[in-house]
Design goal:
By secondary structure, this protein is of the alpha+beta class. Strands 1-2-3-5-4 form a five-stranded antiparallel beta sheet.
C-alpha cells in the first residue's frame, strides 16, 4: 500500500483492514510497515518501534489463539470444558512448536484468521488485532491476571523475574506490551480486550494528542527562554530565605523584615491561617505565625509566595488567579490527606508541593502569542505535530516545565522532584517523593470529585490502590470526608 493511498484512507476517515490465515513473517512485516506509514503521517514516527513491537505481540497472540483451537480439535478436546482445557494445555506448547506449519495449514482449512485493523477516529488512532474465535473463561482469567500484574511492575527486568507461564508461552507478552505503552505515555486503560460476535479483539487506542518524551524535550528547550525571562524572587524573600539557612537565625529580625513589606505580611498571614498551619484561633501577628510555622514551614511559605509574586509580575491575569486558587485547594487537601494517612512528617512538603505543582501550567497558559508562534514554527521545522502545542497548553507536560522553573529559582531538589512527578508518582526517584506525590495525585482526584462541573476523570488505579482507594465508592467516601474537613478547618 503506497503512502498516498494511506493518506487518502486517513483523510476519508476509512479504516485499513487485512485478514490473514497464517500470517507468515513477511506479512507481519508488511502490517508493521503500514503502521509505520500511518504514524509517520501523524507525526508520531518516534513511537514506531514501540508500537511495532506491540502490533507483533498482538498478531502472535491472535495466531496462538487460533493454533490452540485447531490443536484442541485435532485432539478431540472441548476447549470450553475446564478439564479438557487443562489436559490440552499441558501438551499444547511442546506439540505445536515442533509442527507449527501443520497447525497453520489447519487454520486455513477451518477458516480461522487474524484480522489487523487500523482506524483513525478522533481522539484516537486505533490498532485492533482480532481472531474469529471467542475467548474461553480460562483465557479471560489469564489475560486479566497479566494486566493486573503489569500494574505493579515498573521495568521489564522486574517483569521478567516475576512472570512465567510455560503452559502457553513465556507469559510476558501482554505485561511487556503494557510496560512499553506506559513508557511512551499511553495509559493502561487504552489497552482493551473484548469479545463480540464470536470475535476476540485486542485494541490499543493511541491518543492523537500523544506527546513523546523526545518531543517534550524539544518543546521544553524552546520554553527555557520563556522560563529564563521569568523574574527572580523579590530581593527581600531571597534575603530571608538565605537568613533561614543559619541555625542561629534571629526570628525577631526575620519578623521585622517581613513587617516592612505589607504584601509579604499579608501573604504569610494568609498561608499561616490555612488549614495546614492554623491550629485554633486566627493568627493575626507575624511573630506568632513564625513561631507556629517553624523554620521549614517558613522557608516553604516564602518559596511559594516568592513564586506567586514573580509570576504576577509577568502573568497578571484572572487565569493565573484561578490556577493559584486551585493550587491552594490541592495544598489544603494534601495536608488533610497526610493527617488521615498518618503521614504528618510529610505534611509540610505535601502542602508546598500542592501550592507549586502547577506552576508550569501557569507559564504555559500565560504564554504570549509571539512565544506560541515561535513554538509552532519549531514544530514545523522539526517535523513534529502542531497538536503538541495545544497539548502543552492543556498542561500535558506542565510538570517538567514547572520543575525547570523550580530549578531556576533554586528550590530544593525535593521540591523540584515533587513538582516533576506529581502527575506520575510511580516514576518518582525515591520512596519519600513517591509518598508525597501520591498524596498530591489523590488530592487532585478528590478536587475533581468536589467540583460539580466535573463529568468524568481518569486516574491510575495502581496509585489509588496503594492509598487503599480501590473503588468508586471509596473515592466518594473520601471526597465527602475531605469536604467536611475543609469546612471544619475554615
Amino acid at each position: 500500500m503506497q503512502d498516498f493511498e494511506i493518506e487518502q484512507y486517513i483523510k476519508l476517515g476509512k479504516p485499513i483492514m487485512y485478514r490473514d490465515h497464517k500470517v507468515p513473517r513477511e506479512n507481519e512485516d508488511f502490517y508493521v510497515s503500514i503502521l509505520e506509514k500511518i504514524l509517520k503521517y501523524l507525526g508520531k514516527d518516534k513511537v514506531s518501534d514501540h508500537l511495532g513491537y506491540c502490533l507483533r505481540e498482538l498478531i502472535n497472540n491472535a495466531k496462538k489463539a487460533n493454533t490452540k483451537r485447531v490443536f484442541f480439535l485435532e485432539q478431540n478436546l472441548d476447549i470450553t470444558d475446564p478439564d479438557h482445557y487443562h489436559k490440552g494445555m499441558t501438551q499444547f506448547k511442546s506439540t505445536t512448536f515442533d509442527n507449527i506449519d501443520f497447525y497453520l495449514d489447519l487454520q486455513e482449512k477451518y477458516d480461522l484468521y487474524v484480522q489487523v485493523y487500523f482506524h483513525i477516529k478522533e481522539p484516537f488512532f486505533n490498532i485492533i488485532v482480532s481472531n474469529n474465535t471467542p475467548l474461553v473463561q480460562q483465557e479471560k482469567e489469564k489475560i486479566s491476571q497479566k494486566i493486573a500484574r503489569a500494574k505493579i511492575f515498573t521495568s521489564v527486568d522486574e517483569a521478567v523475574q516475576n512472570v512465567l507461564d510455560d503452559t502457553e508461552g513465556a507469559g510476558l507478552g501482554i505485561v511487556i506490551l503494557l510496560l512499553i505503552l506506559r513508557k511512551i505515555g499511553i495509559n493502561d486503560k487504552n489497552f482493551a480486550v473484548a469479545v463480540e460476535n464470536n470475535m476476540t479483539h485486542l485494541r490499543i487506542a493511541m491518543p492523537l494528542s500523544l506527546v513523546t518524551e523526545e518531543e517534550t524535550e524539544i518543546i521544553s528547550d524552546a520554553l527555557i527562554k520563556e522560563i529564563d525571562s521569568l523574574p527572580q524572587f523579590p530581593e527581600n524573600i531571597t534575603m530571608l530565605t538565605s537568613m533561614l539557612q543559619d541555625k542561629d537565625v534571629d526570628f525577631s529580625n526575620i519578623a521585622n523584615i517581613i513587617k516592612k513589606d505589607p504584601s509579604l505580611t499579608m501573604g504569610i498571614l494568609k498561608m499561616a491561617n490555612s488549614a495546614h498551619y492554623r491550629r485554633l484561633n486566627k493568627i493575626e501577628k507575624i511573630d506568632l505565625a513564625i513561631s507556629i510555622i517553624g523554620v521549614t514551614g517558613l522557608k516553604h511559605l516564602l518559596q511559594s509566595i516568592g513564586a506567586k509574586m514573580a509570576l504576577e509580575k509577568k502573568y497578571a491575569s484572572k487565569e493565573l488567579e484561578d490556577l493559584w486558587d486551585h493550587s491552594i485547594l490541592i495544598a489544603q487537601i494534601s495536608s488533610i490527606l497526610c493527617d488521615k494517612y498518618k503521614m504528618n512528617d510529610l505534611g509540610d512538603y505535601a502542602y508546598i508541593g500542592g501550592l507549586l505543582h502547577d506552576i508550569g501550567k501557569i507559564v504555559l497558559r500565560g504564554l504570549h502569542s509571539k512565544t506560541i508562534d515561535k513554538l509552532t514554527k519549531i514544530c514545523i521545522d522539526k517535523g513534529i505535530s502542531i497538536n503538541i502545542i495545544e497539548n502543552l497548553m492543556e498542561g500535558v507536560n506542565h510538570a517538567k516545565i514547572g520543575a525547570k522553573m523550580a530549578i531556576k529559582w533554586n528550590l530544593s531538589e525535593k521540591i523540584v522532584n515533587i513538582i516533576k512527578y506529581h502527575d506520575n508518582p510511580l516514576a518518582s526517584p525515591d520512596d519519600t517523593i513517591k509518598d508525597i506525590t501520591k498524596i498530591i495525585y489523590l488530592a487532585h482526584i478528590v478536587s475533581l470529585k468536589l467540583n460539580p462541573d466535573t463529568k468524568t476523570y481518569t486516574a491510575e488505579d495502581v496509585v489509588l490502590e496503594e492509598l487503599n482507594v480501590k473503588t468508586e465508592n471509596d473515592i466518594n467516601e473520601l471526597s465527602n470526608y475531605i469536604k467536611k474537613e475543609l469546612e471544619r478547618r475554615k
